[in-house]
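Sequence only, no structure available. Ideas?
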Amino acid sequence: EASGEHVDFGDGSHCTLASDGNRVVLAPNGYAVTTHTYAKPGNYVITARNRRADGQEAVRRSVVEVTAGA
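Reply:
I predicted one. Tokens follow.
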């Protein structure tokens, strides 16, 4: 059963990804991948949320440092 994972990139941008929630370990479609381009350098907190059918929610946060490109 697919579920949606909401990703907040920490700069006001967000998206929802489809994933099977990794119910089958290492399944080719078990992992969602996305890319995001930040408008300016800085530190951003990326928050990913996934709510199961029973109402339980998993929240993961990562900090990314964006530097100016060459």
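The longest strand covers residues 42-51.
Hope that gets you unstuck.
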